[in-house]
Amino acid sequence: MEIDVRHIAKLSYLKIEDNEIETYQKQMSDIIQMVEALPDQADFDAKPKVEDAMQLREDKVRPSTPRDKLLQNAPQVEAGCVVVPKTLE
Questions:
Q1: What is the residue range of 33's domain?
Q2: Is 28 contained in some domain?
Q3: pTM exceeds cut of 0.85
Q4: Domain count of the chain?
């Protein structure tokens, strides 16, 4: 199976150097082969069992860190929110 790493990188907004293309193609092919080798879902008994039930902890109300103290570490704050750079074009 041929994997178009350049197309995947473009869709993901990733920059991949020409010398890395072959490495990523091999890694992606290996992942696809591993997934194809997994047994069919029909072979598993997916019903939950009583003995596998999770033990949940009791919820406890505790005071949290004040917002002003948390925002002191932010490089830029506006209207009580952290300002971050735009990530999508």
A1: 1-39
A2: yes
A3: no
A4: 1
Count of CB atoms situated within 10 Å of the CB of 5: 19
For 74, residues 6+ apart whose C-beta sits below 8 A from its C-beta are 82, 83
Q: What whole-number distance in Å separates Cα of residue 1 and Cα of residue 5? A: 12
Residue-wise pLDDT tens digits, 6-35: 999 999 999 999 999 999 999 999 999 999
What tokens does 35 get? 């997934």
Query: Which of 7, 13, 9 has the alpha carbon at shortest distance from 87?
Result: 13
Contact 65, 73 (CB under 8 A): no
Q: Would residue 14 count as lying in a domain? A: yes
Contact between 15 and 9 under an 8 Å Cβ cutoff? The reply is: yes
